User: Which sequence fits this backbone?
């Protein structure tokens, strides 16, 4: 007998698929309910937000391999020009203990308003990227991520070593050459444990107080490239990928501050 002609053999796989789809739809709708009832008003008030991928697109894994290191990227669909540009991108993780993850600010000199990083995700949830263009309009792209426990994942065995290199930074440029007057991809790597205040020290077995980077500023020859406000969702040893446009040789500078008031800076010469 042909398998497709036997309804009994199809019944359970079909029902299982239906239940899975219904479960995912319910989870997503619950997250939308939280956003609609609380989070949208909390972070954006009554401002209208269009849900589309015409301005930005958020890319995230559907199932995270490590909930404390979830790769997230936001790709801009419009160019940064003086007439129209993305001036801010805010990341919200609906079911995290602190839903606000980060807010990035750009200028036309940024070249592209793309940004990528690793985040902690604490539960099955929608992750949202909300872009604001220079005309004040808001646009949202979202992705559902299956992860659990990212904000309370253990700190690691060698916190003393992590604290010894606290605040060390470096830029990692994409490729061997920097192209003048064009967007160049770069990465800022920061040594910082980014403790959430929910994590247990593996040696002392005590919950450590929160200690995380909460402000990042990147400039080139004194002109802003990218600034960010960040919170506990950003993973340990934060790294951010973004673009900048060098007009000539100059200095790329990073300045960071953490929630305990510690400040660090780093500069690197760039020769197109």
Assistant:
């Amino acid at each position: 007998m042909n398998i497709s002609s036997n309804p009994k053999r199809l019944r359970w796989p079909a029902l299982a698929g239906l239940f899975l789809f219904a479960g995912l739809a319910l989870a997503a709708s619950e997250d939308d309910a939280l956003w609609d009832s609380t989070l949208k008003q909390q972070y954006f008030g009554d401002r209208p937000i269009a849900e589309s991928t015409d301005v930005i697109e958020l890319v995230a894994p559907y199932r995270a391999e490590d909930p404390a290191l979830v790769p997230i990227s936001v790709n801009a669909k419009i160019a940064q020009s003086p007439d129209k540009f993305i001036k801010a991108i805010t990341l919200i993780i609906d079911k995290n203990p602190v839903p606000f993850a980060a807010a990035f600010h750009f200028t036309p000199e940024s070249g592209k308003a793309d940004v990528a990083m690793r985040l902690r995700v604490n539960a099955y949830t929608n992750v949202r990227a909300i872009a604001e263009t220079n005309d004040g309009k808001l646009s949202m792209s979202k992705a559902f991520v299956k992860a659990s426990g990212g904000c309370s994942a253990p700190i690691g065995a060698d916190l003393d070593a992590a604290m010894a290199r606290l605040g060390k930074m470096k830029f990692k440029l994409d490729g061997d050459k920097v192209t003048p007057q064009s967007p160049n991809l770069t990465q800022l790597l920061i040594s910082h444990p980014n403790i959430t205040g929910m994590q247990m020290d593996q040696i002392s077995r005590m919950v450590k107080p929160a200690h995380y980077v909460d402000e990042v500023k990147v400039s080139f020859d004194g002109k802003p490239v990218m600034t960010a406000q960040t919170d506990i969702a950003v993973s340990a040893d934060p790294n951010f990928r973004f673009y900048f446009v060098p007009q000539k040789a100059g200095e790329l500078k990073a300045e960071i501050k953490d929630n305990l008031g510690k400040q660090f800076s780093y500069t690197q010469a760039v020769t197109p």
Notes: The radius of gyration is 21 Å. Confidence is low (pLDDT under 50) at residues 1-22.
